Description:
- The protein is an alpha/beta fold.
- The protein is built from eight helices and eight strands, in the order βββαβαβαβαααβαβα.
- A hairpin with a 5-residue loop joins strand 1 and strand 2.
- The longest helix is centred in the middle third of the chain and has 22 residues.
- The chain is globular.
- About 3% of the residues have low confidence.
Amino acid sequence: MTAESTPIDIRTEKLTLLARDGYPLGVNRYHAPGSARGNLLVAGGTGVPQRFYRRFAEHAARRGFNVMTIDFRGTGESRPRQLKGFEMSYLDWSEKDLPAAVDMLSQEDLPLYWVGHSFGGHAIGLLPNHDRLTACYCFGSGAGWAGWMPLAERWKIRLFWHVLMPPIVAWKGYMAWSLLGMGDDLPLGVYRDWKRWCGYPHYYFDDPGMGHVHERYAQVRTPCAFVTSRDDPWAPPQSRDAFVKGYRNAPLTLYDIEPSAGNPPIGHMGYFRSESQPFWDEALDWLLSAGNQAAGQSVSAAPR
């Protein structure tokens, strides 16, 4: 085996990070083996544990980034002993948990980059400290409304929200979607918020009780790329486009991945599987390029 093909071991630390309200969060840090080119925060999808992003984090570390992954409160390594009765809002992840990670990483004298997956592309606009981010690259972030999805998936999602999940939640006291093999269990508050917002074509931008989010998203000036695969059933391009309208003052790059014939489908989760390494390199290259842009200059080049 040549030196080029031998993977470089990445030093990893398990840490406890206190959210802005003091809630303890389990995080992992992946350290670049040499001089770091920047810090990178991975903001994962709803119900997706941070371990799912390990291969990407290790790859990014080998590319020279110090990477942090995080389990949001109520999930993974940040889950309480019992989910039933655990009180929280879905907004806590973007208003208390992720801001604490940004606080920590932005103290270091390095650019701070963001890679989001699904929910991770939503959270940027709700961060109270999004101005500390140098550039953001997000995979599979959409509005969540079933009407944007392919017909078969549309009916599956409506069945999920309105037929399958309500009796499970009533029985367990939380969103036990692991019973359906769909993801990690989620607190009741996340279930209630998520179900309500997915009922609107533009997610919480259409929620009469969430009028304040329009101005908060309008404050984002960070260059952001939103990339989605055309075979992503949960966040196809039209769903992504419906959501990112909220980032009306941010320099945006929108890019659609065309799945290759003969290769495994990408879907909603394939962005972070090992065979997607070329997409990872495109993301990291774009972030570095955006980070080198003069302040306020639009970044318009699509990934290769």
